[in-house]
Amino acid sequence: MTYRCVAAVEVGSPHVLRVIEKDLREPTKNEVLIKVLASAVTRPDITVRKGEALYSGTPLGQKFPFVPGYAVIGDVETVGEEVRQAEIGDRVGVLTVTGGYSEYLYWRSDRLIPVPGAVDPAEAVTLILNHIVAYQCLHRAAKVQAGDKILIIGASGGIGTALLQLGKLADLTMYGIASKEKHQVLINSGAVPIDYRTQDYFEVIQDAEPKGLDAVIDGMMRMDYIEGGLSILRKGGVMVSYGEPESIGSLFRVLAKLAKVKLLPNGLSYKLYGTSSYFLFNRQPYLDDWAALFNLLEKRMIEPVIMQKFPILEAALANELLESGEVVGNVVLVAPELLDQSGEGK
Hints:
The protein is built from 10 helices and 15 strands. It has helices at residues 43-49, 121-141, 158-169, 183-188, 201-208, 223-231, 248-263, 277-280, 284-298, 315-323, and strands at residues 2-8, 17-23, 31-41, 71-79, 91-95, 104-108, 113-114, 149-153, 173-178, 192-195, 213-218, 233-242, 269-273, 306-311, 330-334. Strand 1 and strand 2 form a beta hairpin. Helix 2 (121-141) crosses helix 3 (158-169). It is globular, with a radius of gyration of 20 Å.
């Protein structure tokens, strides 16, 4: 028997994503076989396909063909003989980094994320990467408190909309940078929108918050935003950048700024956030935070913004949409049985 997945066969545009078949096999003694219900389509998927990934956790020098897909939700279908962490039928999440655009996934049983069985897989998969980044940027890196005033740079994408919802729950005063046509999602979360095309965010913040902000969460990783963000912090404020610089040169400039702020802090703090520590250090904070996020989802205290769902094997179309720059929130791939006849998610 075989299953299908979507592989990038070479460096390039979404057109290099092709459906291929692989043989189903029995999982090894410490593996589980997961029936994939939902897979996130994220910015790192695009950068590694285009050969532009720098340090976001994506394997450098990825060999082609490979299957993109940074995060999945699915049900355990088969378990290896020594697996004790999961049983057949369990719903689980996986931070895959690559491999998620697939009907089935083999994964180590000690790297599974427990997922409540009642949650919508399409919503749940946004928690595995985008929401965990947002949650940890706010609560572990910036350590926000109720009443804090923050700026979100890049407030309309998957992580940005997660920051908005989590910031509202945390009782923050929020300002967000996004193009004007995407402002409604900011307004819905109580944030003050700033149009980067027609407004100078530096002037807007200076006029509204002359004493400065408590935190800036930056998803662009550009030096102009980093310099500007640091300049509008109050003494004791913190800036947190996540994502990928535009080039190796940009990365070195960001690291140089990080070192300079640490050496000459001037009452400010600058931090870089990346999920790569999940693989290298203590996994427990991630498991704790995913559990907190799933609890919020079950209680409908967060409602992930999903712009469109595609069948898993239509990953190329989903990538085209994400690259268009028109997306508000998330783009998600789902198993065909989770789509109704109109193509909308059930």
